[in-house]
Amino acid sequence: MNNPFEFVMALVAMGMVTGLLASVVRTVGRSLERKHGAATGELPQLRAEVDALRIEVAEQQDLRQRLLDLEERLDFAERLLARERGPALPKGQ
Fold it and tell me: What pTM does this model have?
């Protein structure tokens, strides 16, 4: 391109094509956003549900730990009682 006019026209053409493509992409994006708008509106609700599930899991982990502690105490009490028992009574008495 020896002619500056051709160079400027090529730049203008590339700009117009880029602008047209950007407009098409924006239009398709808006269309998809409207089509799936309910899905994006559900995002805060889904986050709240995930937070609620995290709280529930934390509570269950706490209850599990308490249950393990109670099992250890019960095992200890059973061992203590078994050790302190006298001789077993004969069967039938």
Answer: 0.43
User: According to DSSP H, which parts of the chain are helical?
Assistant: 4-35, 37-41, 43-84
* Residue 50 burial class via C-beta count within 10 angstroms: exposed 0-12, middle 13-18, buried 19 and up: exposed
**What is the residue-wise DSSP string for 54-74?**
HHHHHHHHHHHHHHHHHHHHH
pLDDT confidence of 50, banded at 50, 70, 90? very high
38-47 per-position pLDDT tens digit: 556 677 888 8
Cα Rg of the chain, angstroms: 37
User: In b/e form, how buried is each residue of 1-39, taking b as 16+ CB within 10 angstroms?
Assistant: eeeeeeeeeeeeeeeeeeeeeeeeeeeeeeeeeeeeeee
